Amino acid sequence: xxxxxxxxxxxxxxxxxxxxxTIFYSLRFLFKKEExxxxxxxxxxxxxxxxxxxxxxxxxxxxxxxxxxxxxxTHLMQIICINNGSVDDSYSTFMMARQQFDKLNLQWxxxxxxxxxxxxxxxxxxxxxxxxxxxxxxxxxxxxxxxMINKFIHNSGIKAMAGTILTQRELIKADKNFFSRxxxxxxxxxxxxxxxxxxxxxSASGRIFTMAGAFCGYRKEAIKETFLFDTEVVGEDxxxxxxxxxxxxxxxxxCSEAVFYVEPIDGLNALYKQRQRWQRGELEVxxxxxxxxxxxxxxxxxxxxxxxxLDHTFSFLRIMWAFILMMLLIYGYRLQVIMSLIGGLYxxxxxxxxxxxxxxxxxxxxxxxxxxxxxxxxxIVIFAPVYQSIVFIFRFIGILxxxxxxxxxxxxxxxxxxxxxxxxxxxxxxxxxTFLFGKLLNKKNKSxxxx
Amino acid sequence: MILAIIILxxxxxxFILKRKKFNAFFLIVGSAGLFMLLGIxxxxxxxxxxxxxxxxxxxxxxxxxxxSFNILKEYLLINIGATSLYLTPECSGLIESxxxxxxxxxxxxxxxLQKCMVGILGIIWIFFANVIRLVFISIVIYWGGQEFVFLAxxxxxRIIFFLLVTVLYFQVxxxxxxxxxxxx
Lengths: 451, 184
Description:
The complex is a heterodimer of chains A (about 450) and B (about 180). Chain A has 16 helices and 8 strands. Chain A is α/β, with parallel strands linked by helices and about 450 residues long. The mean pLDDT of chain A is about 90. Chain B is mainly alpha-helical. Helices cover about 75% and strands about 5% of the residues of chain B. Chain B contains 5 helices and 3 strands, in the order ααβββααα. Chain B has a 3-stranded antiparallel β-sheet, with helices on one face. In chain B, helix 3 packs antiparallel against helix 4 and helix 4 (about 110-145) runs antiparallel to helix 5. Chain B is elongated.
């Protein structure tokens, strides 16, 4: 019996670290209604929308169209499409968009030296009082810019804001492949949870970790005081959040009502690359900003320490849990026993997921279509721990791969990595074969020549 | 014979992963294999001596507070009044020590000498974390009686031990990586 408790205790403690804050904040949010500023301003400022482009010929038109459909006056918008080394026909698509949306102030700039530098060049060329940054593969909700700028105007202390990012429902529904659709639904649930609940928790405790670069906004005056986007890190958005929060001590908040819809993930290989990149981004920023203060005694002073414990230290402890599972097998425990233990932990995870689901659902009331779609996800939420486990493994691989592998190495997919291993085994077999039989063959060849 | 083939295949796989610089798979495959080997071969040899050493230290610490504890090292028992605590393999801290050593062996940010030093300190840390846990459990049961066994042993004791192991893992793995990671 001791092992049962031991195993459950070791496995459940990291889950409790997620479950307890989720319950606490869910109850707090449900009982405390948010005050949303609905007052419309008669005077509106000029804004600049920056759209970094990389091989976006397929998505750029719909992205620009969504900006054009925005409720924010288009004559007050400067839209900079900053090309970051596209090799497809993004430029022609841009020219088509210019013709189609001739009332928009659309500009194209080429910069082939990485996303961060491209963003910096766009910032130099911007004249808006506020900067909105969006990815070129997404669709902006028509109210998104108006909501974000409105919040900026009414909250002078907020210097930057993260919007809500969800994946495009229609693309999920249109996917015919069952597994791929399942993955995309889980991803939608994850995004909804993370942006509508997770970011709220971070905001309520002053611990916003990143304004996702896919959709965020800044005051130009604030961004001018930063060192702009760092070209040395993968997570330039996390770095910018830390520059504003940690270096300049500015208030970074969320604007949950402003929504941007990105394309859903294109399979496990893409997820593998994406999550490794995100993990690397987090660790690089930790290195840059808390290298000296990365001590446990600073846990209450610096939220990055608790974040590192949750994302890094607990990852190793979860691996420890998996090893204990192996130990059970060595000790000759029956499969039934092992499955019941895993089941116990799964139930605990499902409980956490359901609390998140219902809280997030209550936050979705403002977005009718998404609310309807999210409601239908109820059935698949039970499998969310499976998806979370896959994501955890990918992130753990990201932690380890970021140690001393150059960034471009992280861009390999699982399939490519396996193929590299197979090709190396083949090479070794070939080498061993030549070593063992090469001399023999040479001798044979020589004797054949002599005869 | 089969075991020898498995070990050789494991070593060869590690060799490939090392050459390819696939850090993640190198650590996962390497530490899982080493842990299995330690679990199968070293665990039976070390279990009793480590448990007895643990009880000896626990005995010394508990004797500072009171003489009401009766520790029978030969039977791996702690008698607290009418309650007896039996030191099972999972209470010895041996599994956690093996896991720590296995991960550390394949963690790339230390030199061999550093790994030896950190490994020894880590094992000592886990040992004393276990001592603290057992002392805590014994004292709670001593003051609260038999009804506190579950709370002290399965909940509070585990949380204390888990937190102490978290401190170790943070210092050894997280802090090291945050300091040593190279920017892109």
